[in-house]
């Protein structure tokens, strides 16, 4: 059940917020045992899958501005995120063969992984993260946005870890529609966003 009363704030992951992101990852055992949210980036987890390497490569992406991520804060603590970026920044989606098979048009933007820290789940953190990411995409000019969420309906209740690309229902809330199925429970979902330039002063 959503807890609308918690007033989250959002900030982009950058040099100023890196320490907050790192604290969240470290409080959750590196996320997936040390991924540091590298799975979608061109390097993936790296051949050696070393935790410190993943951390360092992620840090370098943030320094260079080649990682886009919205952090969700509960007060001063980062409690979750939504990763997004153009396909060149996030080439490593799941089920690439099935994805490529019926690919008609690459999106302008992808939603990568979504994460909420343990103890903060089912309180609207991921919802705030996706809202923040979509607002940032609109500010950057909008365009075609893809997400690769897991179907919820018609299967047994799943642990949150299965939903690292998000549950389908969350994206439906934001106007995403099913495009095609790329795995037993995974869909390509799309929404086209207008540019979100602020209206001119009246
Ligand atoms: C999936 C995940 C991101 C959801 O985050 P969350 O902050 O708990 O989600 P929200 O509270 O914002 O939920 C929004 C909606 O998504 C859906 N949803 C969220 N978690 C769900 C679950 N476990 N099962 C089914 N639907 C779910 C619901 O529709 C929910 O709305 P509701 O609570 O009003 O029913 C979280 O469980 C998580 O981080 N899991 C681990 C994922 C992971 O390992 N990511 C790292 C990969 S590198």
Order of helices and strands: EHHEEHEHEHEE
Q: What integer is the average pLDDT?
A: 92
CATH class wording? Alpha Beta
In helices, the fraction of residues equals 25-40%
Strand order of the largest sheet: 1-2-3-4-5-7-6
Shape: globular
> Which ligands occur here?
coenzyme A
CATH superfamily: Gcn5-related N-acetyltransferase (GNAT)
Q: Helix/strand/pairing class, anyone? A: alpha+beta
Structural overview:
- The N and C termini lie far apart (about 40 Å).
- The protein has one domain: Aminopeptidase (3-Layer(aba) Sandwich).
- The chain is α+β, with helices and mostly antiparallel strands.
- It has a seven-stranded mixed sheet with strand order 1-2-3-4-5-7-6, sandwiched between helices.
- The longest helix has 15 residues.
- It is globular, with a radius of gyration of 16 Å.
- The structure holds coenzyme A.
- The site of coenzyme A has 28 residues, from strand 4, helix 4 and helix 5.
- Coenzyme A binds next to strand 4, helix 4 and helix 5.
List its traits.
202 residues; alpha+beta; Aminopeptidase; 7 strands; globular; binds coenzyme A
Short précis:
This protein has 202 residues and is an alpha+beta fold. The protein has helices spanning 18-27, 51-64, 96-101, 125-139, 168-173, and strands at 9-12, 68-74, 77-85, 109-116, 143-147, 177-181, 187-193.
List the helices and strands and how they pair.
Elements (H helix, E strand, L loop, with lengths): L8 E4 L5 H10 L23 H14 L3 E7 L2 E9 L10 H6 L7 E8 L8 H15 L3 E5 L20 H6 L3 E5 L5 E7 L9
Parallel strand pairs: 4-5
Antiparallel strand pairs: 1-2, 2-3, 3-4, 5-7, 6-7
């Amino acid at each position: 059940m959503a807890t609308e009363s918690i007033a989250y704030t959002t900030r982009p992951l950058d040099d100023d917020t890196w320490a907050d992101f790192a604290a969240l990852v470290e409080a959750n055992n590196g996320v997936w045992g040390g991924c540091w949210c590298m799975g979608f980036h061109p390097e993936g987890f790296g051949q050696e899958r070393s935790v410190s390497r993943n951390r360092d490569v992620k840090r370098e992406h943030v320094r260079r501005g080649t990682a886009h991520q919205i952090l969700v804060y509960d007060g001063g603590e980062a409690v979750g995120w939504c990763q997004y970026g153009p396909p060149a920044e996030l080439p490593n989606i799941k089920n690439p063969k099935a994805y490529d098979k019926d690919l008609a048009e690459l999106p302008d933007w992808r939603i990568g992984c979504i994460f909420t820290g343990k103890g903060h789940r089912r309180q609207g953190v991921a919802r705030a993260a996706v809202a923040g990411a979509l607002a940032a995409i609109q500010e950057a000019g909008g365009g075609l946005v893809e997400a690769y969420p897991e179907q919820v309906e018609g299967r047994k209740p799943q642990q949150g870890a299965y939903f690292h690309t998000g549950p389908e229902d969350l994206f439906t809330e934001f106007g995403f529609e099913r495009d095609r199925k790329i795995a037993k429970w995974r869909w390509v979902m799309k929404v086209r966003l207008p540019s979100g330039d602020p209206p001119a002063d009246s």
